[in-house]
């Protein structure tokens, strides 16, 4: 027998095994989907109209378990992503979810929504961040996804400001690695006269743009996807945007990964009418203000230290209400129902001029 024949036979044997495994997987996935249908039935019987099909804490603990018990050779993130999609499809059988995002189609916010909920979520493009809040408040969408901070450019202050007046709660967080590309119909960099992008993305690629397109006019627009749409109409224009926008608007990548900071990451928040029950590894976001006096903030935050709570972020914003100069957005580790967190929050509530729990939610798994 020649070597080619034995190789072919070996290949055929492994493929047969793969086919058999796929059939087993299919049978197991179908059985899992039927279990999700039973869960939906039990939930409906138990709670009637106010039933919560989507359970962020359950999803987070399933994904964590999968990552921890993953035997390889597939990477933990990769395996979790597969299970993310299986759960997304199972949930859609119970009831399809809708999520409003900062449009148009192809933005990083849409990518964040899909990363968090999986591809079975029905995404709805909105023109501005405040419209996302309104869409969820009115009940037209179940959830919204809004950008809150970028590792290079800092906080998205407009999002924080909207939390001051909104009754919505934070039910999840998503962290997305952001890779920016220079997208255009032009053949070369020398043809580019104008670059469109969102102001944050222009800032995240400032050094690259200064070095490679020093004479191009940089124009800030509402979103990266809008920039790609405009660049698709002008032969001498380019957009700084993600790969999804290139696909949607039919542009080529003239230069890839042009962000100045290779670990450039944006954190998004998922907003809804309720926050999440405890998942075992949670965060709580707070809105606080204190008396404008020496040591005011220090004594306001003292209960955190007393109860051994880690603060992962603090951001200040002008209050816009006159009586408080500043409000503080604070993230802490733990769920608001954990005994030490609950204790600290009771003390904070007594001492703060303004105290609002924006929500407790699972720490991002993916
Ligand atoms: O456990 C539940 O409550 C389910 O609805 C099942 C399931 C799943 O597929 O595992 C689906 C949707 C929920 O968001 C969480 C988990």
Account of the protein in words:
By secondary structure, this protein is of the alpha/beta class. It has 4 domains: 3-93, Chorismate Mutase Domain, subunit A (Up-down Bundle), CATH 1.20.59; 97-178 and 265-271, D-Maltodextrin-Binding Protein, domain 2; 181-255, Periplasmic binding protein-like II (D-Maltodextrin-Binding Protein, domain 2, 3-Layer(aba) Sandwich), CATH 3.40.190; 276-362, 2-Layer Sandwich (Alpha-Beta Plaits). The chain is 43% helix and 25% strand. It is built from 12 helices and 15 strands. The chain has helices spanning 3-47, 56-69, 76-94, 108-117, 129-137, 157-165, 199-204, 206-212, 224-231, 243-249, 296-306, 339-351, and strands at 98-102, 122-126, 143-150, 154-155, 169-177, 181-184, 194-198, 217-221, 237-241, 252-255, 265-272, 282-289, 311-318, 326-333, 354-362. Strands 1, 2, 3, 4, 5 and 11 form a 6-stranded mixed β-sheet that branches. α1 (3-47) packs across α3 (76-94) and α11 runs antiparallel to α12 (339-351). It is globular. The model has no long low-confidence stretch (mean pLDDT 93). The chain binds prephenic acid (PRE). One of its GO terms (biological process) is L-phenylalanine biosynthetic process.
């Amino acid at each position: 027998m020649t070597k080619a024949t034995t190789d072919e036979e070996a290949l055929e044997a492994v493929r047969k095994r793969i086919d058999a495994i796929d059939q087993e997987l299919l049978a197991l996935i179908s059985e899992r989907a039927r279990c999700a249908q039973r869960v939906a039935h039990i939930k409906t019987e138990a709670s009637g109209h106010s039933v919560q099909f989507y359970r962020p804490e359950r999803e987070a603990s399933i994904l964590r378990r999968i990552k921890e018990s993953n035997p390889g050779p597939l990477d933990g993130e990769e395996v979790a992503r597969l299970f993310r999609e299986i759960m997304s499809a199972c949930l859609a059988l119970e009831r399809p979810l809708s999520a409003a995002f900062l449009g148009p189609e192809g933005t990083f916010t849409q990518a964040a929504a899909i990363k968090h909920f999986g591809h079975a979520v029905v995404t709805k493009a909105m023109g501005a961040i405040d419209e996302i809040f309104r869409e969820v408040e009115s009940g037209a969408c179940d959830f919204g996804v809004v950008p809150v901070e970028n590792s290079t450019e800092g906080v998205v202050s407009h999002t924080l400001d909207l939390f001051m007046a909104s009754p919505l709660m934070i039910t999840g967080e998503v962290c997305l690695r952001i890779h920016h590309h220079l997208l255009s119909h032009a053949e070369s960099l020398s043809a580019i006269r104008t670059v469109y992008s969102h102001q944050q993305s222009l800032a995240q690629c400032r050094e690259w743009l200064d070095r490679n397109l020093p004479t191009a006019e940089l124009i800030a627009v509402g979103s990266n996807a809008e920039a790609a749409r405009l660049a698709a109409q002008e032969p001498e224009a380019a957009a700084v945007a993600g790969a999804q926008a290139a696909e949607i608007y039919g542009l080529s990548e003239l230069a890839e990964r042009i962000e100045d900071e290779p670990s450039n990451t944006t954190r998004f928040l998922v907003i809804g009418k309720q926050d999440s029950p405890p998942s075992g590894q949670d965060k709580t976001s707070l809105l606080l203000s204190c008396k404008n006096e020496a040591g005011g903030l220090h004594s306001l935050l003292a209960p955190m230290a007393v109860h051994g709570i880690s603060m992962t972020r603090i951001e200040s914003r002008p209050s816009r209400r006159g009586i408080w100069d500043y409000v503080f957005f604070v993230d802490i580790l733990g769920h608001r129902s954990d005994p030490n967190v609950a204790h600290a929050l009771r003390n904070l509530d007594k001492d703060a001029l303004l105290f609002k729990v924006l929500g407790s939610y699972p720490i991002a798994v993916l």
